[in-house]
Structures are given as structure tokens and as C-alpha cells.
């Protein structure tokens, strides 16, 4: 038997669960199989040998490339048994299921507010740290969330994507459109606790209260 064949068979042979003879020289992490160590070292070298032929995005491991290809094929093999919504990754389905179960396993250590997904908790934590990592390149205004920065940018671009279906008036932000719609519906959700007079906008109620306070 050739040496190369012996080495190949040796790697395929089952190893004792506690035995991990292949150790990473950089991070001291050990592995059962040499092939696993080889894949792991790509993290340190930053080499991404597996490249998508469609969009040229590269990956450390072949398995990640295979999952990525589902985006291009639009194949979503992981299906929710409750609402039949499908997902590319099993992890996406797992996160989605929390919406049905109502489970919120990720809890804020500061205020005990809980979240269904870890990414939501990470965004929430920025409120406590005061960090504003998303900075406007035009006026240097900073924001906690990227979504907030995206909304802010409409001020500079002048883009008004939110259009009233009744009168075609357009707005930069959806919140402004929602306020405007109250003019058409006649709804006045903001009520004065003293005289019961109602207003379509909270700011108008606030101004009205000055009459009572003097």
C-alpha cells in the first residue's frame, strides 16, 4: 500500500472522541481530523479559495459556498411548518420559529428587555452604550442604527419615497406620511386629559396643554 493511501485511510479511521491530535499553531485549537485543521487555518491566513462563479463572492469553506449558491438558484429548502415560509439556511428558519413560539431568549443585562434574535439585542445595546457608529458623510450627524442613517440621508438627497394615496403628496419618511394620513381619515388619537379636546398630532396636543398650564 502506498504511503499516500495509508495516510488517507488513517484520516478516515474513527478517532477517540477525546483525542484531537491536529493542533493549530496560531490559536492552539485542536481537531480530530487533519482536513478540519486545514479548513480552520484559512481563518488565520484570510484565504478564501471557494469562489462563487456568479457574483465572485469568496468563502473559507466549500459548505458555505454551497449554501450561498441557494441565493442565486432561489432554492429555499427549509420550510416553516406553521406558515409555510421558506428559508435558505436552517438557522434562518430557527430564528423565524421564535415569532410563532413567542420565545425571546436574548435578554439585555441592563434593562432586562428580551428579544427573539441576537441581532436585535445587539442593536438595542447601542442605546445603553451611547455609541453612534453610523455617521453621515455629508453633515457628520451620527446614529445608533444604520436604518436611522438611511432615513436621515433622504434629507440630503431630497428623495420622497412615501406617497399619499389620497392626494399624492410625498414625504421623506414614513412617519411623516402616517401623520399626514390623519388629515384624510379625521382621526384624532391624541386627547387632552383636562378638557378631552383631541388632536391629530402629538405636537399639537403639547402646544394646547400650555393653555391649561399658563
Automatic annotation (TrEMBL):
Q: Which residues form the C2H2-type domain?
A: 22-49, 50-77, 78-105, 106-133, 134-161, 162-189, 190-214
Q: Any keyword Lyase?
A: no
Compartmental location: Nucleus
Can you list the GO cellular component terms from the UniProt entry? nucleus
Q: Name one Pfam family in it.
A: zf-C2H2
Give a GO molecular function annotation for the protein: zinc ion binding
Q: Is Zinc given among the entry's keywords? A: yes
Q: Gene3D superfamilies annotated for this entry? A: Classic Zinc Finger
The record's section on SUPFAM superfamilies has: beta-beta-alpha zinc fingers
What is this protein's name?
Zinc finger protein 726
User: What broad taxonomic lineage does this protein's source fall under?
Assistant: Eukaryota, Metazoa, Ecdysozoa, Arthropoda, Chelicerata
